[in-house]
Design brief:
The protein is extended. It is mostly beta strands and about 625 residues long. The protein contains three helices and 56 strands. A hairpin with a 2-residue loop joins strand 48 and strand 49. A five-stranded mixed β-sheet has the order 11-9-16-13-14, with no helix packed on it. Strands 20-17-25-22-23 form a five-stranded mixed β-sheet, with no helix packed on it.
Length: about 625
Amino acid sequence: MKKVYSLILTLFAVFTALTASAQEETQISFTLVLDNPDAVTVTISNQEQEVVAGNNDFSVNPYTSLEVRPKGDFAITSVTDKDGLALSLYGGYFSKYFYSVNESGQIYTVTTKNLAESRTCSFVLIADNPDLINASLSGSGAELNLVEGPQTIAFDPELETELYLNSTGSKKIFAITVNDEPFTVDWSNTIPLADGMTIDVKAEYPDMPCNITLSFPEGTGIECIANVAINYVDITLDGNTFSCQAEDHVDIRISDAYKVNGYSFNGEPQDMTDFYSNIMMTPTEDTEVFIDAEPLPKLHATVIIDNPANVSATLQYETITLEPGENTIEFIQNNASFSVSNSPLGTVTKITQTLNGEETDKTGSYFITLEDGMILNIETEDKDLPNMFVLYVEDVAACNYTFGLSNSDWEEYTVVEGYNFIPFNDGDLQLYLGGETANEHQSVWVNYEQLAPRYEGGSSWQFTPQDGDVVKAFALNPNPDTYQVTFEVEGEEEGDPVTTKDWVTYNDDWKNFTVLGKTAIVFGCEADAQVEVFLGEEQIELDKTEYSQNFIFTVTEDTTFTVKFGDAGVGSVLMDQAIDSDAVYNLQGIRVGSRSDLNSLPRGLYIVGQQKVTVK
């Protein structure tokens, strides 16, 4: 037994040694040599380290960062490696990213300097608007805190030999003078420093208006301009002339429907080598911009599709709407890219391209380059989607880019303001909703219970809907109002009355219930019942089928309705109410559209003109 125990201890010791050895093989060891630990801050992966004068040994994992930054009035004058090679400093500090164990064994020697003692020279800097100026010193990388007007700035004549100036605005600095002599201004400016010198920086531009006039050859007009931006902000054109200030950045974007053969500024032709679709300029005077543009010819292709609801289609990467049957697609001569992909409701089964009498199978193509006269025949198949949930969106425009509804294949549903009826498979959906900036501006409710955001204090929600769910999203309303709905009865109740909120949720007590926000309400009963519904003195319009009669309205406040049963004039009203042969109803007797809407409705059984119709 002792021998077995001894063997286990030996194996454990060997294993421990091997493990330690393996760990050592994956570590990167280096030494940081400091002349003054009080002059720098050392961080490894953003964690500050305690350091001493002389050698500081570290062992880190691959993909670890090291930074050595100067403190206060200190500067790092040099960093060398173990071979004495000088390493680069950026902005006055040293940084290193370790990738692999091959970088082990390096020695970094850091030399520092006390600038409070070495800054024996100075210059005067005069700034008109310090908010528009970035200023820093070479060598130390020290950033200067400028004030309006003149200020004296000390510098080290051996280390800080240059002043760096650039603009924080959308234009270059307007003017710089050095000892009253003009300095040529660029986006980045480097000024050699000398003791006692004066540097005057004018960042703000005086009022220097420039009028820009756009002109075109005969047959072309302002319609060839897609938009104009001044300092990256779009402006509204009113005619062919607009104004800007001198040195403003002007960007004139040409419409994709036009070809530019050339352009000139005040009669001087400009280089077209790098021209794509934008004319950019920084005018210093009134300028006539002549644009030699001509419209591109309009070309046409035909797209034939059986059920557009089954696909998502784009032209030049912009979503387009297709109709059942034949669609004419207009595009310009530069090859237009057309794509069609599966929608959440269906799949593409075949795409046949016909061009110059030749047929080509394009099934599975991500993008098809359209040519004039091309015909695309798209065949689709409906998906089997047995489930349905209701999504109500108060304000789609107020939702940000994270707002969307997609299935497990990342196929996007189209969501509109108001009610959306979403068919889906079990576990196939994820709903993502994002509001403006913070969750106090919005709220999401699932089956009338508020849903918490994905993380505390966040502004996005995610969940998996279930069959029959009602989801209500209030993008700008963290506390939507609730309203009490009451039905008061006159006469003897008949026709098995029911009430439904949000189209799918039946109320246990049809006479009294609460709703959330702007809600659609349906009061219904059997087709042969004698009934009228009033809101105050106003009679609610009747929606009648062979099977039921319904009264549909939207509630935006506490509301009391009067339901009158019996034959007090009701019978004649109902007999005069013709059944709309064009209307489409679901099996709950709720009108959901007209005959022309059938192809866009979810699959299922509907009532049209007293006939049952199946939508596949």
